[in-house]
Design a protein that fits this description.
- With 328 residues, the chain is an alpha/beta fold.
- It is built from 15 helices and eight strands.
- It has an eight-stranded mixed sheet with strand order 3-2-1-4-5-6-7-8, sandwiched between helices.
Length: 328
């Protein structure tokens, strides 16, 4: 039975998932690096920097001792995708042995192009990789608004056990065994959400945005299946569901970043964590290597690299050779 949950990451998502686990009746220990965040959670039962105004369950214990958080039945990694390798490498090997390590980040590692489960296999070979993904904003989850997600592990029994450990009346996890498909859906949708934000920022209209989202899904599904995902996985919460959410408005960091670019902001303008920036070039390069047509991802990667301006990117997409919708 999974009763004790360790959360690695004191940001908004880690804090929201700590609330999920506590509401499900689990014993929760949250690891954070920032002493102010730890004190805030333990003394005031609130993460005022990351989730202001949302009271936290008083049973959630925050700590700066990584080993204490790892003393659990399952561990959730709620850190940025590009930080997963460093965080896992810092874990004492024995403490993660034989335990589920659930990655709650969405991205592919820049440089290696590896999925999060592949990084876990390298840095914590004795742990059991799992993935939590799907349409879920931290603030919605923390405010106890109805949310459904996917929890994937190669072993169906483990995926079901993790789902049961986190489920409560406002948080419904669905168990899945297609780890590859769940990982890729979450990673690719971040890149495509930047494109949706650009279209909204350029004020190209609702028709253009709807068309883009539909074509975004074509690219996500095509990429996932070519890279080994089951055909039905992109149709679910971790694919289509998450894509619709992140293309729906500025509550999504990736959409908000694209919105600012479409409105004329410089690439160098400050922005919060946007996972799609790092993932764009990775997805583009993998697509090229495997001969997968992804013109929207190509355009986003070229824009972010400063190699293509937005108006020319739009022209390039709109003047591609005509073909059947179901063709590439």
């Amino acid at each position: 039975m999974i009763d004790r949950i360790g959360i690695i990451g004191g940001g908004s998502w880690g804090t929201a998932l700590a609330l999920v686990a506590a509401r499900a009746g689990r014993t929760v220990t949250l690891y954070a690096r920032d002493a102010e965040t730890i004190d805030d959670i333990n003394r005031h039962h609130e993460n005022r920097r990351r989730l202001p105004g949302i009271p936290l369950d008083k049973t959630i214990a925050a700590t700066g001792d990584l080993a204490r958080a790892l003393d659990a039945d399952a561990i959730i990694l709620a850190v940025p995708a590009q930080s997963v390798r460093a965080v896992v490498a810092a874990m004492p090997r024995g403490l993660s042995q034989g335990k589920p390590l659930v990655v709650a980040a969405k991205g592919l590692e820049r440089g290696s192009g590896k999925r999060m489960s592949e990084i876990l296999a390298e840095e914590a070979p004795g742990a059991i990789p799992a993935m939590l993904s799907g349409p879920s904003f931290a603030s919605d989850v923390a405010r106890r608004l109805p949310t459904a997600v996917t929890i994937a592990a190669e072993d169906e029994g483990l995926a079901l056990a993790l789902s049961r450990a986190l489920a409560h009346d406002a948080f419904r996890p669905y168990a899945e065994t297609d780890l590859v498909g769940v990982e890729l859906g979450g990673a690719v949708k971040n890149v495509l959400a930047i494109a949706a934000g650009i279209v909204a920022g350029r004020k190209l209209g609702a028709s253009a945005l709807a068309a883009l989202i539909a074509r975004n899904f074509v690219e996500l599904r095509r990429f996932a299946e070519a890279m080994g995902a089951l055909p039905e996985t992109p149709m679910g919460l971790s694919g289509l569901g998450d894509l619709v959410l992140t293309c729906s408005g500025p509550q999504s960091r990736n959409f908000a970043f694209g919105l600012s670019l479409g409105g004329g902001a410089a690439l160098t303008a400050p922005h919060p964590l946007v996972e799609g920036i790092e993932t764009a070039v990775v997805v583009r390069d993998l697509a090229r290597q495997h001969g997968i047509a992804m013109p929207i991802v190509e355009a986003v990667a070229d824009i972010l690299a400063g190699q293509l301006d937005i108006d020319h990117a739009i022209e390039r997409l709109m003047t591609r050779p005509l073909r059947r919708e179901t063709d590439s």
